[in-house]
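Sanity check

After download, print the first record. It should look like this:
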Amino acid sequence: MGNTSLKNKTALVCGGSDGLGYGAAQQFATAGAELVIVGRSEKKLQEKKAILDNINGKNNRLLILDFDHLDTVQATISELVDKVSIHILVNNCGGPPPGKLVDADSNALLKAFNQHIIASHIISSLVIPGMKESGYGRIINIISTSVRQPIPGLGVSNTIRGAMASWSKTLSHELASTGITVNNILPGTTKTSRLDNIINARQKRFNISLEEATEQMLNEIPLGRFAEVVEISKAILFLASPDASYITGTNLQVDGGKIKSI
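Expected structure tokens:
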């Protein structure tokens, strides 16, 4: 049998109060990990913490952070790692608003770069020493299939996700000798609030109904349906587990066959 137990491990999950981040946190809690969930809404975090506490029987932590405020991110995570060693880090931040890249201004690109790459780099840099000391480290970045194939109408997101993938690949090489793995999850079209935004943007771009926009997106997926959050989060659990000890520097697509390249 495989080993996906995370007993005696602590996981820091960014965007842990909703969507794929919360899905990952649920899987980690079920596998026995203690959790630190990060988000902007104290109300949402408290609600999800109560559920997670019930799953793993622990007093999980929550951190209220806005990745637009990087000084606060630095200070808060620094304080955290003085108290606890983080074994698993999930870097995850909501995607930039839909729109064409040609219409985006430099501020939109800079904001996305800070929220995704700079925030992830700050957090990773602070948790890596504890991973080295404990002898266990997993860094998992939730990005996008746009790393493989740009998604029309998501210009800023395509740009930043590609940069995130390169950052991750570089970090995986630099950390390989320590046993710390760094991998990316490329989720396909998944049933989250982000999907609603993308469908709405497509409907407006092509001046069609929401039903038609949804059908167009479904027709692009060989499996013919959108992913459930649990289908993505179980892949995240695998990469966080001891079973994935020889996997690093990779992009794991969980996309229902949407990407056509080999």
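If your output differs, re-run the checksum step. Summary of this record's structure: The CA atoms of residues 5 and 31 lie 5 Å apart.
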